[in-house]
């Protein structure tokens, strides 16, 4: 435990007093402090000037990170008949209908992304209270309610990240792994920031992007200059 404490103190000392960094500086610092025994996820958190209690201030969308997430994404698909077969051929990890609904109701949520064909929404709709809080509910606005299940599965497994503003106007996501090259992490961070910037809702007033932080799973966070994250 003493060794862990020493490492943690060293990481915190390395970032002390460093704020409003460029994306490149932040990535280098966070990556350099990611010294856990596993491949840490590089995480971004953005504080937005929105009130998610109002529909016209909700922020949500998707972005395909140019260098992927480094994470193996398990995909569940609600489909029947030919579409179910298409989903299996496209590499879906779990495919089902009422049986899948019952499994989820029983607490089996062994997937990271949920896709549904439009005809399955009456079934999926019963799972709103379970999948909604986990940001897993299929939604046509982000392409997860679609007859084109192959494209949706390819996107999910190819580095697409969904984002949604939570209570307090915070958006967060994983944008790669500590093992990624710095240049690839920089590209991913900027792509994510661009996507959130473009998703600015009509009801947002005043300053939209207020704070951007970058951290690794076990490391301290650093702040990124908002203008630097979106100017390129």
TrEMBL record:
Matches recorded under SUPFAM superfamilies: Ribosomal protein L1
GO cellular component: cytosolic large ribosomal subunit
Domain of life: Bacteria
Keyword Cell wall biogenesis/degradation in annotation: no
Molecular function per GO: rRNA binding; structural constituent of ribosome; tRNA binding
Database matches in Pfam families: Ribosomal_L1
UniProt GO BP: regulation of translation; translation
Keywords assigned by UniProt, alphabetized: Repressor, Ribonucleoprotein, Ribosomal protein, RNA-binding, rRNA-binding, Translation regulation, tRNA-binding
Keyword Ribosomal protein in record: yes
Protein family: Belongs to the universal ribosomal protein uL1 family.
Function: Binds directly to 23S rRNA. The L1 stalk is quite mobile in the ribosome, and is involved in E site tRNA release. Protein L1 is also a translational repressor protein, it controls the translation of the L11 operon by binding to its mRNA.
Xref: NCBIfam families: rplA_bact
Known partners and oligomeric status: Part of the 50S ribosomal subunit.
Protein name (Swiss-Prot/TrEMBL): Large ribosomal subunit protein uL1
Native source species: Aliiruegeria haliotis
